Amino acid sequence: MKCPTCSRAFVRLPFLGRELDACPRGEWVWIARGRLAPFSKAIQRRPSRRDLASLEKECAAREKAVARALKRGTAPHQRCPECEERMAHQPLSRVGGILAHCCINHGFLVARKGFETFVDFLARGGETLARQRLTKRVAQIAREAKAAQEREAAGDLFSLLMSR
Ligand SMILES: [Zn+2]
Ligand SMILES: [Zn+2]
Q: pLDDT, tens digit, for every residue of 109-120?
């Protein structure tokens, strides 16, 4: 596999007892599909509440920047090192605000710096943060559904009364 920007062959980057492919000039790290989960298990620590609060703040700022960048949509689209299809811009994970280039079939291309940020994110409890966010979102959806149900019930009653 070759680096999509400098065209040099990828080199093996030793990482946590495994290996990843990376650009020899240090531009990109390639995370093949399915390789992310074992790493996140190996890196993650149990964070304190205070750690999580500061991580959350940091991620929120990055997520905003990523959302802005995606909206502008001006960054070049890199080609997948495996299939050479143009990749989509996408956050590397739902939480964390790290932008990646994604081939739906083969994996993620991440800038070296973004990769380091991601490792730091996981080490400081990123997965816990993602889980917390998901729980909050699910609770919010449940609240919205309940409110909609109540509105509907009230509407039913109204139409029932009016039809008499
Ligand atoms: Zn390169
Ligand atoms: Zn591909």
A: 999 999 999 999
